[in-house]
Design a protein that fits this description.
The complex is a heterodimer. By secondary structure, chain A is an alpha+beta fold. Chain A has 2 domains: 84 residues, no CATH class; 228 residues, BirA Bifunctional Protein, domain 2, CATH 3.30.930.10. In chain A, 39% of the residues lie in helices and 19% in strands. In chain A, the strands form 2 sheets. A 7-stranded mixed sheet of chain A has the order 1-5-6-10-9-8-7, sandwiched between helices. In chain A, strands 2-4-3 form a 3-stranded antiparallel sheet. The longest helix of chain A has 26 residues. In chain A, 41% of the residues are buried. The mean pLDDT of chain A is 87. Chain B has a 7-stranded mixed sheet. In chain B, strands 4, 6, 7, 14, 15 and 16 form a 6-stranded mixed sheet that branches. In chain B, a hairpin with a 5-residue loop joins strand 25 and strand 26. By secondary structure, chain B is α+β, with helices and mostly antiparallel strands. Chain B has 20 helices and 32 strands. Chain B is elongated and about 130 Å long. Chain A: Pfam families: Phe_tRNA-synt_N, tRNA-synt_2d. Chain A: InterPro entries: aa-tRNA-synth_II, aa-tRNA-synth_II/BPL/LPL, Phe-tRNA-synth_IIc_asu, Phe-tRNA_ligase_II_N, Phe_tRNA_ligase_alpha1_bac, Phenylalanyl-tRNA_Synthase, tRNA-bd_arm. Chain A: Belongs to the class-II aminoacyl-tRNA synthetase family. Phe-tRNA synthetase alpha subunit type 1 subfamily.
Chain lengths: 343, 681
């Protein structure tokens, strides 16, 4: 073979090899090209090297130098192609990959804001030693009224102010008479049951649904939740009551909240007060409170000369709506996912 | 209760700062609800203000301007000016003109009457008209207006009868007769019953006691002689009559909250004086009074130590004494000696015990004096098991994609009738509907959740997957029993039966249930036949799971698949291990094998699983259902292929391939023998 022919073959090989390697767009194409040109057994470089024997002895030095140049150029192209395909540089980006597409979200449900509020309240009160207690929602007049010092002639017992259960007689004939069972109007009934079964000291919160015949509107619903607290011990004072409510208000509403007591009347506490919190510059009534009436202690077998205690009741819905900015209480009971999924 | 500022000035000097007064009244027990001037209320004189105060049900004494003025006098430590009515009486004795018989002392403990003769009915004086108008009372004539004026002055309801209309000049206080009819001064007819008290003459009823007067005996322009009634009617009697007749009035409101027994005679004299001044006439001598004696109030002991024990602060004894004396209590012994003795005034029915006096001192002294940094003894508390469990339940269900709903406990008949898996006893019912048409205490949460799903679909095409945790109210055996209040967790979702079953199985697993969930088919209207099961943990009933029938879905206007389930939380807790306990894992590797069986369609998965488990024993760590495949052409009719995976592992040694193969062979043999299931090659 003449020197000229050999050099031409080398040039052609280099051009072809570099072009093919540059065009490789995936690891498979790259590997095929690599094997074709620089493979150890059947590579094109290996083949052309064997043709050196056909070159005249005087021309072999020139031919060898040129062969080495081509070999290095091709090997460099191999290295560059390999580097490109393994992830470096802009040219490696997959154009079908759009990172701005939304992620695939798992379907996670929502816990009801009332449940979240109750959990929060229970946690705050738990840190002050109050344990949660529960009792029946359908009550008898003894627990709902008598043991709470609400006499028979008290307006709070009125059939229009309570959900009495119908009996065979009232269901078919007369309406609006007091009965033997009713949906409880307050969770104080739980406190009566707790005290009747336990010796002081007592430190509990009772939480649950209560029922009052209010026409539904943005701020009223005939079913709502109460949290009542009760602390009975040998030296419980109204200052303790105010302190507990202060700690609660600070934890739930923030450090800048103020508390105010306004005198009120509840048959089961004496003195009795309404509890207001100053929030966003307005006094908001959140519930009632007071020192447990001695008659209530006697009804459960405690000696009011030995123990004293306080009780308070807060409306859970009112707290929840304030905190979450909920405007209509009826939304809480709608089961509407557009509402529930916001919390 | 509406109070006129100008009217109050007749009894007490008012401070210059009206807003401060309103605040102080709120902070001492008369909650300020609002204020109107002549700008807001044209009926008001330009120089007057109308204040709305909320009076609690134990403070009937504040349902009059004198009562409010008394509170102000105590707060500002000023003098209260109460008018002293003076009467000029004629020589004619009232007993010669009128007789009163009280046959219903239970409803009317005391009845008094006076007679004024020779009145000229006409307009009231301008000052009286202005006063009544300022608090929203209608103006009628100088006789009726005087009764209303005194009502708003001192809180004692009064009534004027036309003397000429009283048959036989006799007033009888008696129970109404069965179905007795009375025409009230609102000129409507009311049917009475014997539980109600009426003021009658010799022939018929003239008034419903404490509630409203009758039309027949009302004062008219031609009335010349009037009878003035001032009485005490018991709260219970008045309230029930007013409620039954749907007749509420300013009078009934005050009788329900008790009136001042001493004030009865005062009011009677006061109104007679005002009538004579504006209508002329003369008052007959004396008063007819069925119960003139008033019991003296018993003394109440107040201990200084008890004040501190209850309030947590020390109040100077002189201040205590001043407050109670100013409120009208008569001091038998001052409190400086350690304990005082006081008698409450006649107008304060609510002051009967030491606790009541403590409250009076506290509210006048000011609750703002009570500190809010009093030490609270530390006490440990622990979370209830129920709360820990429901927290886990909510965690699992929200992770599964369900959201928590909260729906009313009382439902309509439609909802109550549609499903009742737990009991066949009829639901308890309220007398009054809680919401429109809703009287039934629910026996299952499921209809409420289905309704919520339907509402979501109707309003926003949302396929809502929901759960709720709430009480069911399962009626007891007799009407007097309280119901079983069972806490249930209930869910409604789309998807299929097995997706819902998987949620329940995951829930039980997460709660550490010791026993596997098992199912037994039951049948019930509203569900697809064969796709409603009772769920159990071992032998204990847990709840229900089922596919809602298409017909039922159509009624709710729901499309697609709806699966519902309801579990008893008590049953969940009974089998739960809420604090997970570690189990030692084997240090040797496990071996996996997949087996594909062809078998009869009637073979249930749990049967197959049980056979596999018993064939291998301890070295079977898990057997997992993978897939069911049906190809009638290859396997024949009523045949199916079930693919399962076994995880084999020893606690004592590494299982070899041959060991695993031997176990697999025993499984294959057992399945063949017991279930006629063939391994596919």
């Amino acid at each position: 073979m003449s020197l000229q022919n050999f050099l031409s073959a080398l040039d052609a090989l280099q051009s072809e090899a570099i072009a093919t390697l540059d065009a490789a767009s995936d690891p498979e194409a790259f590997e095929a090209a690599r094997v074709k040109y620089v493979g150890q057994k059947k590579g094109a470089l290996k083949d052309i090297q064997k043709q050196m024997g056909g070159v005249a002895a005087d021309d072999r030095k020139s031919a060898g130098m040129r062969l080495n140049e081509v070999k290095q150029a091709i090997e460099k192209a191999v290295a560059e192609a390999q580097s490109r395909l393994s992830g470096g540089g802009d040219s490696g980006v997959d154009p079908t990959f759009d990172p701005t597409l939304p992620g695939v979200r798992p379907t996670i449900g929502h816990i009801h804001p009332i449940t979240q509020t109750i959990t929060h309240l229970t946690e705050i009160m738990g840190r002050m030693g109050f344990e949660a207690a529960e009792g029946p929602e359908v009550e008898d007049p003894h627990h709902n009224f008598v043991a709470l010092n609400i006499p028979e002639d008290h307006p709070a017992r009125d059939p229009l102010d309570n959900f009495y259960l119908a009996t065979a007689a009232t269901g078919t004939e007369k309406q609006n008479i007091e009965g033997t069972r009713l949906l409880r109007s307050q969770t104080s009934t739980v406190q009566i049951r707790v005290m009747a079964n336990r010796k002081p000291p007592v430190r509990v919160i009772s939480l649950g649904r209560v029922y009052r015949p209010d026409d539904p509107d943005a701020t009223h619903f005939p079913m709502f939740h109460q949290m009542e607290g009760l602390l009975v011990d040998t030296h419980v004072t109204m200052a303790n009551l105010k302190t507990v409510l202060r700690v609660f208000a600070t934890n739930y509403l923030g450090g800048d909240v103020e508390i105010r007591f306004r005198p009120s009347f509840f048959p089961f506490t004496e003195p009795s007060v309404e509890v207001d919190f100053l929030w966003d510059g307005n006094w908001i009534e959140f519930g009632g409170a007071g020192m447990v009436d001695p008659n209530v202690f006697r009804a459960v077998g405690y000696d009011p000369e030995e123990v004293s205690g306080f009780a308070f009741g807060l409306g859970v819905e009112r707290l929840c709506m304030r905190r979450h900015g909920i405007k209509d209480i009826r939304d809480l009971y709608s089961g509407d996912m557009r509402f529930l999924s916001q919390f | 209760m509406l109070v006129s500022w100008k009217w109050l000035t007749r009894y007490v000097d008012l401070p210059a700062d009206r807003e401060e007064l309103e605040t102080r009244l709120s902070l001492s027990g008369l909650n300020h609800e609002g204020t109107e001037t002549s700008n807001e209320n044209p009926a008001l004189a330009a120089d007057d203000v109308c204040i709305d105060l909320e009076v609690t049900s134990n403070r009937g004494d504040c349902l009059g301007h004198i009562g409010v003025a008394r509170e102000i006098a105590v707060l500002y430590d000023t003098e209260l000016r109460v008018p002293s009515p003076t009467l000029e009486e004629s020589k004619t004795d009232v007993a010669s003109l009128l007789k009163v018989e009280n046959e219903f002392t239970e409803a009317c403990p005391r009845y008094t009457a006076r007679v004024i003769r020779g009145v000229k009915v006409g307009p009231s004086p301008a000052w009286m008209q202005a006063a009544l108008t300022s608090v929203g009372i209608g103006v009628v004539n100088n006789v009726v207006d005087a009764t209303n004026y005194v009502l708003m002055e001192c809180g004692q309801p009064l009534h004027a009868f036309d003397y000429a209309k009283i048959a036989d000049q006799k007033i009888v206080v008696r129970p109404a007769r069965e179905k007795e009819i009375i025409t009230a001064i609102d000129h409507r007819q009311y049917e009475l019953d014997p539980s109600m008290c009426v003021i009658a003459d010799a022939k018929s009823a003239s008034a419903v006691a404490g509630v409203m007067g009758g039309a027949d005996s009302e004062v008219t322009d031609s009335t010349a002689d009037v009878v003035i009634e001032a009485a005490i009617f018991t709260p219970l009697s008045v309230r029930r009559a007013a409620r039954t007749l749907k007749l509420h009035s300013p009078s009934s409101f005050r009788f329900e909250r008790r009136v001042d027994p001493v004030g009865v005679d005062w009011a009677s004299r006061r109104v007679c004086q005002l009538i004579v001044e504006s209508a002329g006439g003369t008052v007959a001598k004396g008063i007819i009074d069925t119960a003139p004696e008033i019991e003296p109030r018993p003394p109440i002991v107040l201990r200084r130590s008890q004040l501190e024990r209850i309030l947590g602060i020390t109040i100077e004894p002189g201040e205590v004494d001043r407050i109670l004396t100013a409120l009208g209590c008569q001091s038998d012994a001052k409190i400086t000696a350690g304990s005082g003795s006081y008698r409450a005034p006649s107008w304060r029915h609510d002051l009967t015990r030491e606790a009541d006096l403590i409250e009076e001192v506290a509210r006048i002294h000011g609750y703002d004096k009570i500190p809010e940094d009093s030490p609270i003894p530390v006490a440990p508390s622990s979370k209830r098991t129920f709360d820990s469990a429901t927290e886990k339940i909510r965690g699992v269900l929200t992770a599964a994609g369900l959201s928590e709903a909260m729906t009313p406990s009382v439902v309509t008949k439609k909802l109550d009738s549609s499903l009742s898996p737990w009991t066949e006893r009829p639901a308890l019912s309220t007398q009054t509907a809680m919401l429109k048409g809703a009287k039934r205490l629910r026996r299952t949460l499921l209809p409420s959740l289905i309704e919520a799903r339907a509402n979501n679909w109707a309003s926003a095409s949302i396929e809502a997957d929901l759960f709720e945790i709430a009480h069911l109210y399962l009626p007891g055996e007799t009407e007097d029993e309280l119901p079983d209040e069972l806490y249930a967790v209930s869910l409604v979702c789309g998807g299929d039966f097995f997706a819902a079953k998987g949620i329940i199985e995951s829930l039980c697993q997460r709660l550490g249930a010791r026993q596997a969930v098992s199912v037994s088919p039951v049948d019930s209207p509203g569900f697809v036949t064969g796709q409603l099961v009772q769920l159990s943990l071992g032998d204990s009933p847990l709840g229900y799971l089922g596919v809602v029938a298409p017909k039922t879905l159509k009624q709710w206007k729901l499309s697609g698949n709806v699966v519902v389930a309801e579990l008893s939380i008590a049953a969940l807790l009974a089998d739960a291990e809420l604090v997970p306990q570690q189990r030692i894992v084997s240090m040797f590797p496990s071996v996996e094998r997949d087996l594909n069986f062809v078998m009869s369609e009637s073979v249930r998965w749990n049967d197959l699983e049980n056979v596999v488990r018993s064939a291998v024993g301890d070295q079977l760590k898990s057997v997992t259902y993978r897939e069911t495949y049906r190809d009638p052409k290859k396997d024949g009719k009523d045949r199916k292929r079930v693919l399962l995976s076994m995880q084999l592992q020893s606690d004592e040694t590494t299982l070899s391939g041959d060991d695993a193969d031997a176990l697999v062979q025993s499984v294959i043999g057992a399945c063949k023998k017991k279930l006629d299931a063939e391994l596919l090659g």
